[in-house]
Amino acid sequence: MPVTCLVRWKNATGMRDFTLIAEHVTKSLHGKNMGQWGLSFKVYRDVNPALARQQQQQQMAPKDSKLMYQVSLAQQPGRVYCMVDGSVVVEAEKEIEVILSRLKNLWQLRQNVYIEGVTYEIGDFTLRVANILLGSTYKGLLLEATYHPCSTPNVSSDLIREFVKSIVPKTAELSAEYEYNYETVGLSNNDFTTAHTGYQYMMLFRNDGLL
């Protein structure tokens, strides 16, 4: 499948810049609005019975507790992508969420975020745009750029970087990783999949302190 890169516009100003991009894409770049899209991001904390009392007293997770990240993408309904603290990325059926909800003695839901935005088609690119809201706190604008002619990770990074620059104003402060060593988390460095996109979301949320 085509490669995708994620970018967070850190100093965006909410709906004002969301509308700015929409007008620029549709009027200047002749992009087509393809409708809404969304994703959900969940973080679970493992429950260590031996430290449960300490956890309750301190109202915080023990230092040695593990986190599991879970991403569900609208473009791949029925599937979720999970990773426990930088181990390997695992693709699973959506039903795993029901299983985890019944395993509260092992995994406790720590954070649940749903992001909704708009999809645009612009030539060889698909651009998904959404405001990042964590509760009532605004955390910038999310850009998900997909380049359809390429399916090999890290090959078209410069091209996607230039595409993103053509979308946002020069004053935009961006947070992005255009290249990853996917093999370290059990993914291919030769063939891009939706799991690669899921991993990018995990890294973006974790590295930018959005969790």
TrEMBL record:
InterPro entries: Mediator_Med20. Keywords: Activator, Nucleus, Transcription, Transcription regulation. The keyword Transcription applies. It is found in: Nucleus. Gene3D superfamilies: 3.30.310.180. GO terms for molecular function: transcription coactivator activity. GO terms for cellular component: mediator complex. Its main location: nucleus. GO terms for biological process: regulation of transcription by RNA polymerase II. PANTHER family: MEDIATOR OF RNA POLYMERASE II TRANSCRIPTION SUBUNIT 20, UBIQUITIN SPECIFIC PROTEASE HOMOLOG 49. Belongs to the Mediator complex subunit 20 family. Component of the Mediator complex, a coactivator involved in the regulated transcription of nearly all RNA polymerase II-dependent genes. Mediator functions as a bridge to convey information from gene-specific regulatory proteins to the basal RNA polymerase II transcription machinery. Mediator is recruited to promoters by direct interactions with regulatory proteins and serves as a scaffold for the assembly of a functional preinitiation complex with RNA polymerase II and the general transcription factors. Component of the Mediator complex. This is Mediator of RNA polymerase II transcription subunit 20.
